[in-house]
Design goal:
The chain is α+β, with helices and mostly antiparallel strands. Helix content is 16%, strand content 42%. Strands 3, 4, 5, 6, 7, 8, 9, 10 and 11 form a 9-stranded antiparallel β-sheet that branches. A 3-stranded antiparallel β-sheet has the order 1-2-12.
Length: 174
């Protein structure tokens, strides 16, 4: 009995730590830090083929529960010439409010254009969560748009932003 319980504990411990997943379809490799879950969505052959309620496109939704509001990171795969597509400016009914101020940043595999703003909920017609949008520089004819936010109406604080950035840093090109 003791050996069975020990085996179950070891198995649970292994699966609770970060996992690295290679997505050939999205041409990404991502490592989910502890507590994060990932769910891929979209077409099996083409990034604009289908999708889900978030976007009629392909991508990955990451989330992590938090006592002050769930953390979310959504990655949209963008084919060549698709950066101006209006559908990737939304996450479900949340529309990214564009701003002029741009920061440049990098992680292991990407260079990003980073903009801090908020979402506007088109259903309720109100401002919504503060968020950050990253747009990767094109690599091999495609790009990625990444939205990060916490489901909390307060401004993103440095601790929340650090956790969200940790998830973004776990995303690399294949």
């Amino acid at each position: 009995m003791r050996k069975i319980l020990l085996s179950l504990f070891v198995c649970a411990s292994v699966f609770s730590f970060a996992q690295t997943v290679k997505s050939k379809l999205l041409k990404l490799k991502y490592t989910t830090p502890e507590g994060w879950t990932a769910s891929e969505f979209g077409g099996l052959k083409h990034w604009d083929e289908s999708g889900n309620a978030m976007c009629r496109c392909s991508g990955i939704a990451f989330s992590k529960p938090h006592k002050n509001g769930k953390f979310n990171v959504v990655v949209y795969a963008v084919p060549n010439g698709g950066l101006d597509s209006a559908k990737r400016e939304f996450v479900e009914s949340l529309h990214f409010v564009n701003v002029e101020k741009v920061e440049k940043t990098t992680n292991k595999g990407f260079s990003f254009e980073k903009r801090r703003s908020n979402f506007y909920d088109v259903k309720t017609k109100t401002n919504s969560y503060n968020c950050i949008r990253y747009i990767s520089k094109p690599t091999e004819g495609h790009s990625y748009i990444i939205y990060v936010w916490q489901e909390n109406m307060d401004l993103l604080n440095s601790t929340s932003e650090r956790e969200l950035t940790e998830m973004v840093n776990g995303i690399e090109p294949l």
